[in-house]
């Protein structure tokens, strides 16, 4: 899956250039031009990284940042702030806004791509790790084994991929549609309730007598691994 980058930039020329370069570098960019649209876009599809301009019409970049940080679902999404030289850089520099990084305009595309890769590596090491750990659950990607509290868990291939996906993004809520795309692939036709069936099987395999359910069902939204 290509990392989804949400670009929030009101300068059309720069937004187009960013979109072009992100695609070329293997990212899936979504472009929006103001803060209000940014908040809607995040609700529709959770980005892997947000590239956020500081000065934006309607809702400012700082406000977008603050709102993303205050919600459980978006609290950990990496944010790179774009600022013009002299635009309150001291506050941005201190990253008081809650951004993970910032870059001053004009910047080179190479530099921005490097920053995006750096935040992805730092914030989602799970994408590259051999072993994923969540509470007492360990998923070993090399040996293709899952253990909970020291006991071996036997999972079918779909339940394994489902668990692996959820463990890469603990706390993040996925809709059934997003899980279908990530686990089954977007070109396969599967009914939405198939997801529920497999989540049910995964739970059954994972939970022994007296253990807590690690998977949270979010009413009308989907599923997430308890953060
Ligand atoms: Ca701007």
Question: How would you describe this structure to a colleague?
Answer:
By secondary structure, this protein is α/β, with parallel strands linked by helices. The chain has helices spanning 12-24, 35-44, 61-70, 89-93, 109-123, 157-168, 176-184, 192-206; strands at residues 4-8, 28-32, 49-53, 79-84, 101-105, 131-134, 137-140, 145-148, 151-153, 215-218, 222-225. It folds into 2 domains: 4-127, Rossmann fold, CATH 3.40.50; 129-225, Arc Repressor Mutant, subunit A (Orthogonal Bundle), CATH 1.10.10.10. Helices cover 39% and strands 22% of the residues. The strands form 3 sheets. A 5-stranded parallel β-sheet has the order 2-1-3-4-5, with helices on both faces. Strands 6-7-8-9 form a 4-stranded antiparallel β-sheet, covered by helices on one side. A two-stranded antiparallel sheet has the order 10-11. β4, α4 (89-93) and β5 form a beta-alpha-beta unit. The structure holds calcium ion. Calcium ion binds at residues 10-11, 53, 55-56.
Question: Which key phrases capture this entry?
Answer:
8 helices; 2 domains; binds calcium ion; alpha/beta; 5-stranded parallel β-sheet; Rossmann fold; 227 residues; 4-stranded antiparallel β-sheet; Arc Repressor Mutant, subunit A
What percent of residues adopt helix (DSSP H or I)?
25-40%
Q: What would CATH call the architecture of the largest domain? A: 3-Layer(aba) Sandwich
Instruction: Assign an overall shape.
Output: elongated
What ligands are attached or bound here? calcium ion
What does the oligomeric state look like here?
single chain
- Sequence of strands across the biggest β-sheet: 2-1-3-4-5
Q: Report the structural category.
A: alpha/beta
Low-confidence stretches: none
Secondary structure tally, helices: 8
Helices and strands, in order, run as: EHEHEHEHEHEEEEHHHEE
CATH-wise, what's the superfamily of the largest domain?
Answer: Response regulator
Largest sheet at a glance? 5 strands, parallel
What's the rounded overall pLDDT mean? Answer: 88
CATH class of the largest domain: Alpha Beta
How much is the radius of gyration in Å?
Answer: 19 Å
- DSSP E strands, number: 11
Determine the strand fraction and express it as a percent band: 15-25%
Q: What is the total domain count?
A: 2
Determine the CATH topology of the largest domain: Rossmann fold
